[in-house]
């Protein structure tokens, strides 16, 4: 059974940084595309970034240049480094394995 567990969320001031982690179990994530999505209150879930099994990355325009997705295959974990955070980045961030499996999410709150 595949499980994805996110961690690293919290409250940060605008301009600050956070690093989210998504630890996978039940499957080796190196063979799969991994992605991060976010959902703010009252809004639809929004794609943030993904990384292919080959390591190619892609980002939403709203986070490009500020966020970095990476993976550590030895730890079976994918990360989202978030810098220069803005209040509009406030949301629940969830990771996904090939859009088939999802974690429960971690709250990120950016204060102005």
List the helices and strands and how they pair.
Elements: E1 3-7, E2 10-13, E3 18-25, E4 34-39, E5 46-51, E6 57-59, E7 67-72, E8 77-82, E9 91-97, E10 101-102, E11 106-111
Parallel strand pairs: 2-11
Antiparallel strand pairs: 1-3, 3-8, 4-5, 4-9, 5-6, 7-8, 9-10, 9-11
Q: So how many helices? A: 0
Q: What global shape is seen?
A: globular
What is the distance, rounded to the nearest whole angstrom, between the alpha carbons of the first and last residues?
Answer: 40 Å
The low-pLDDT segments are none
Helix/strand-derived category reads mainly beta
Radius of gyration based on Cα positions: 13 Å
- The amount of helix comes to under 10%
The largest pleated sheet is described as: 7 strands, mixed
- The pLDDT mean sits at 96
Q: SSE order in H/E notation?
A: EEEEEEEEEEE
Q: What proportion of the residues form beta strands (DSSP E)? A: over 45%
Topology, number of strands: 11
Structural features, described:
This protein has no helices and 11 strands. The protein is mostly beta strands. Helices cover 0% and strands 53% of the residues. A hairpin with a 5-residue loop joins strand 5 (46-51) and strand 6 (57-59). It is globular. The termini are far apart.
Give a quick set of tags describing it.
112 residues; seven-stranded mixed sheet; mainly beta; single chain
